[in-house]
Amino acid sequence: MQAAHLSASNIACRRGDRLLFSGLGFTLGPGEALQVAGANGIGKSSLLRILAGLARPYVGAVEREGTVGLVDERLALDEHLPLGKALAFWSALDGEDEAQRATALGLADLLDVPVRYLSTGQRKRAALARLLGQKAAIWLLDEPLNGLDTAAVALVTRLTAEHCANGGIAVVASHQTFALAGMQQLPLRDFVA
Amino acid sequence: MSALLRLLRRDLAAFMPGGRRGGTLLPILFFLAVAMLYPFAVGPDAPVLARTGGGVAWIGALLAAILPLDRLVAPDLEQGFFDHWALRGISEEVVIAVRVLAHWLSFGPPLMLAALPASALLGIDGKTLYTVELGLLAGTPGLAAIGVTIAALTAGLRAGAALSGLLLIPLAVPLLIFGAGALSTGGESGIALTAAISLVLLAIAPFAGGAAVRAAREG
Q: How are the residues of chain B apportioned to helix, strand and coil, as percentages rounded to the nearest 5?
């Protein structure tokens, strides 16, 4: 795992005419995890996209060291393809073998099922399988626990803990409790403009 | 390089016949339908058909190019593919360039093939057909470039599909003027100019399309 570093300074985010939050900043080093908490529509997803470099902050700057992996509500898997083939597209780009990761996430039986037939929880796990294959140093997880059963919640928490133990960084945006030891908290409502 | 090939393979699987995005069949059938309807509309006057048929083939090709526009970029943007390509350092420009190639492969050669039965329906003679085919060979890459660029521009918009058709027509006018113009002059200069316009469009498309996708993503 390459050295990971993620810091944000004085970030402000604007959607349309509305300033969602401002003056937000934090620094994360290797092995650290952060939970972004807040009500719906407060800007959690927007913050993650800014951290990923996919959107520009209205004010402020983000510094990243290490590759970024993102899991959000959009799967980026071809809906008509069997799950195995859809994941294989990304694993080929990442140069990783996807099959064993799918097994780790309990998806082994679903590899022949077209992505559009997967349930909410299965889709989430498929997105996590894609993330694992990417071997990214910085994980940005947008509501990773939505639609997951208790066993899968424990699995995701364990995978995130392993990722951090290996020197990775995890930023989790969720309104649910994410039971990870030593996780920092960032309540977004403190920065609402 | 292998990433490019994988992108191309995925795009081709999506656009080619049997692919999930309607493939090439629909535009080609539309093109043939225009060629079939035209003689019904103007009557079976062979000299008139032969004189105007080449131009009708061009108009059919241009209108057929509108059909696949809403499937070229928008689905991948909605499903987050562009996000994950960007995270892996694959730029929008590269994705769009590959997509222009894939779109042309799925659209240009099949259209040139369909021009053969169309020429029979329109009663075009061999020499005119030759000029039409050469013109399509020179012009369809440009049409593909315009198509993907417009698809990228309208991908984030609500009424994108309707708008993209309106946007394509004025941009394709130069291709039509020189491509169809070569029919009346019978010379190669028209074809050469069509090819030149195509090259310019091909050079612009990745940058214009890439910037459009990025704007849609950040917006």
A: 85, 0, 15
